[in-house]
Design goal:
The chain is built from 7 helices and no strands. By secondary structure, the chain is an all-alpha fold. It folds into 2 domains: about 80 residues, no CATH class; about 50 residues, no CATH class. The longest helix is centred in the first third of the chain and has 19 residues. The protein is elongated, with a radius of gyration of 20 Å. The chain starts with a helix and ends in a 6-residue tail after the last helix.
Amino acid sequence: MQNFLFFSLRSENIRIKTNRTIILPVVLYGCETWSLTLREERRLRVCENRALRRIFRTKRDEVTEEWSKLHNEVLSDLSSSPNIIRVIKPRRRSWAGHLTRMGKRRGVHKVLVWKPEGKRPLGRHRRKLENNIKMNLQEVGCEGME
């Protein structure tokens, strides 16, 4: 898709629509079940900003003849789409609602409440899907919901 975003004959609107309809769904596939760390969130933002920079391209100022830099704030204003992390969190909440409505005999519910047996390796364990759902609900203000 790099060549498509770089191709100069395509308008910005077409490149933005391509980003929304092709690139973002591929990047966000299965994001409802991800346990994102800060490092992974940063990588997703870098990926998003890289695509936006290719869409909007740096422009040369005719007066000073210098290339302008596209900072992250400028990119977010130009794209008028929410941050990629702000897209993931509502999807995760809707998936959590879907999980709560599932029956207890379904495989997904079994995976959600599964407790591994045996010893764990040393170090801090990764956050579980259940913990991510609780954190997202706290951000919205639904702390007491189980």
